[in-house]
Amino acid sequence: MRRIALSIFAAATGLFLSVSAHAQEKTLTVYTYESFVSDWGPGPKVKEAFEKTCACKVDFVGVADGVALLTRLKLEDENTDADIALGLDTNLISEAKATGLFEPHGLDISAVKVPGNYSDDTFIPYDYGHFAVVYDTKVMKNPPRSLKELVDGDPSQKIAIEDPRTSTPGLGLLLWMKSVYGDQAPEAWAKLKNRVLTVTPGWSEAYGLFTKGEVPMVFSYTTSPAYHMVEEKTDRYQAASFSEGHYIQIEVGGMLKGSSDKDLARQFLKFMISPEFQDVIPTTNWMMPAAETSEPLPEAFGKLVQPKKTFLMGSDEIAKNRQAWIDEWLTAMSRN
Amino acid sequence: MLTHAERRRGIACGLTSFLGIALFAGAPIAVLLSWDVESTQTRLFTAYTWRILRFTLWQAVLSTTLSIAFAIPVALALARRPHFPGRLWIVRLMALPMGLPVLIGALGLIGIWGRQGIINSLLLKLGLEQPVSIYGLSGILLAHVFFNMPLAARLLLAALERLPAEYWLLSAGLGMKPLSVFRFIEWPAVQRVIPGIAGLIFMLCATSFTLVLVLGGGPAATTLEVAIYQSLRFDFDPPRAIALAFLQIGMTALILLVVITLFPALDDAGATAGRSTRRFDGRTLPALFWDVLVILLATAFLILPLASIVTAGLGANLWSLVTSAAFLRAARTSFAIALAAGLLTILVSLAIVAAREAVADMKRPGRTAKGFSALLGGTSYLVLLVPPVVLGTGWFLMLRPLGDVARFAPALVAAINALMALPFVMRVLAPAIETHRKRTGRLSASLGISGLSRLGRIDLPVLAKPLLTAFSFAMALSLGDLGAVALFGSSDLTTLPWLVYSRLSSYRTNDADGLALILGIICLGLAMLGTAGQREAKHG
Amino acid sequence: MADGIVLEKVELRLGTRDFRFDCALPAGAVTAVTGPSGSGKSTLLNLVAGFETPDRGRVVIAGDDATDKHPSERPVSLIFQDNNLFTHLDLFTNVGLGISPSLKLSAEDWKAISEALVRVGLGGFDKRMPGTLSGGERQRAAFARTLVRRKPVLLMDEPFAALDPGLRLSMANLLLDLHRETRNTVLIVTHDPDEVGRLAEHAVFIDHGRILLQAPAKEFLGRRDIPAIADFLSG
User: Fold this and answer.
1) What stretch or stretches form a coiled coil here (chain A) (predicted)?
2) DSSP labels, B352-369
3) What is the pLDDT of residues B71-84, one digit of tens each?
């Protein structure tokens, strides 16, 4: 009985929605993470620029982060309203593909320039950032110059890191350590443990501890100092350049099979790697653009660490081993 | 003593509430359990699960014990000093930690106790080489005591203030020494409410998540809630998340059962002549010194971290924050949700109290009736253990077919918040109503005062105070809650704590500090609402 | 004259204690219910008032079967030892609630309330709060309420037990005066033999949940042949 009532209600709402949608212009629904659509994020500018070219309306839906974005898509399955998912990162790609919800873009993406020449038939990079240890120059006079120095360094100089079970930067550090240390990663973690002040559930908590002066180092991005230089006019916070190279996080967008207007979706993906979109990214998302911008980047970006080598693991490999590596991490970090 | 109609109505209300809660919490669990996962990747009960289970319970036991051990002397001292300068404000202060987003509270605590905090700077000046680290179990305990001691102290104080004024006359008349007063009057009153309060705090600490991770220092400090979150968010393995949630509920219920057996709740007897309390004990100098010391320590313990939040918040451009469109929108949303959650939880609590009253009024309640009453009591209590992320995800799945979830989200978040506030509101309302009924039940029945007339003339005037307190509790809880919102994210549903987090995640620490300060001020306002009328009582 | 209150083969079990009452109390008279503490005096009163309902048997008040009636539907007024007044309401309202539970009062009612307060010696106390009164004054206010209720039966559970002896005497006189005016049926629970002699025409003696004796008060006070009663009267 209840089910019948529900479905009648659903049908009625559905009808109503589709009628009202038809009355308006075309709508492109973009699922992304919250900070992308916030007032100072890239969202408002991207929306304005794209709407000028498409005679359509862009509707952003912002969830907590990239992981929540994928969860939401899994929950909605084929009924999703999304035309575009914007904000997954390379670690999540094979899981995202496994849902069968995404459609290859079929576009020429030669304009994309990211370290490691990452390319994919379904997902297109729109920005990237290298993970890095960011430190407070007022406190740290001799920052570590390599991951090894970080691991072996003075345990009284602490760092705040993120938990790989709950956050993407946390997973990034895990993969970086794995890339550098391989099978020796557990031993390295056991050493690094003494320098870890605390492991936070997400980036915000760790970075909050850092800017409050509680800890002199934090696990973040090479681009973090750009924010402080541009917005706060201070070069107090700097990223440490590590000689082994840096692990990269590439943020990507893709179109969904169930999109009601695939041409429009494809048009948005193309727009995503055009200078109009890319111009917005550096000073709003505080990440590196994945393609040409129309003007040179702000001066501050020139002062950022330029990694000599980039690490990136295949997402299939990550999907296969993630749980085992997290278990390894747990064991190493819980040891007394 | 109730009329048949009243009894029927009470049972019906309780039944409706129970079914409502059961459906609201049970449906999403059922939906998630039936979610088709190809293969659950990891076994459920690994050594890891047991280890975090052990840690979860251990830290919760310690946190609860410490919170209550600290709260008892504070409540006793405050009860003994009805005219302590600024007492009303100290009591209001105790409502603040509740409404603070957890991360903000943690940052405030770190500002005082952290490596660069006041305490360590002091110690370093005194010649200490290395800062004392609070990260680890000690940090978790510190934070849990900060958040829960005031809650316990407020509830204990309320219990002490319900004691008949004659008791103090009596004890003075009998020449009781402080120890005897404690043993024969204060402790029995306190002991009656401890199981309930301990249970509440225990559940809060057992499900604590952000605090445990931020201050725990490493994955050795992990609660089951983290594992639930991980299996739902990262692994997307709903059946595993539900299994872990059941493990959490089962273990906590077991421990609560032990607590209740150890501290059986006695009958809350006693009626006052409605005179205001005057205390004749504790007039000696050492007693005065002790009470002042306890009150000052507790106040400092609470106010210092809050002050560090204020200091940080003043660095932001508060005016432009408050007048920004984003803030106004978030404030409107938050208030609407908190208001709805507050009202809903009060209604449900009243219904549950009415039903339990109706069962208690039966001459010989059958096993069903007794079981129903116990079930209601247990349900209104244990709902705190159902992780909001489970409720949110399940409801998301159910509401999906009905169209855009964003439109249902505010109602859903309000309902989840109401459920989370239920145990607190029950703690405040149930004893107050019980005392009130003892005092007026027979009289009302014999005069035939029932229904609306009883509500308006007999119940509301007396119960207005606890109702307001409960309402402000519930609103503060809802205002500070972030958990329920996370999955629904849309520009239509930005609450104040969400705004704080989103500023933090975009490097805008200053704005976040400012917003946290504003949230704190709002909670203080609510606390003032909740303690309204106490000033008059002082002169009564 | 019809019996005022009849308990017809009433049986009741409360926890481990059981009670059996079978008695008829005369209308228009003051009956004292007495006995050792814990014997079941208050239970008998509660059965008449409706706070307890019998497992078996009938309760008949003023000729009407009241067995299953709610306390408010029974033709009785009540005075307890304490808590007779709502402490947050003034005396006028407290008395007025005796007339109308929703406080819908006519001009006559207003007059009746003020007169009742005057009658019990609380003239001009209309706006006073119970907390500001002495124990005797609070009991007087409760009397004022029974006056305006005009019910044929008045039930009292140790109404003067909390008062000092001098006050107890003057309250007893007030009760007798009022009783002479209204000729209502009064049931008063007391454990004080002096009070039985002072107030009651009839007495019911209860022990271990049973009625041991039902007799005119004078006869009761002279009985020494039943050990329980002898103990009670001498103790």
Assistant:
1) none
2) HHHHHHHHHHSSS--HHH
3) 999 999 999 888 88
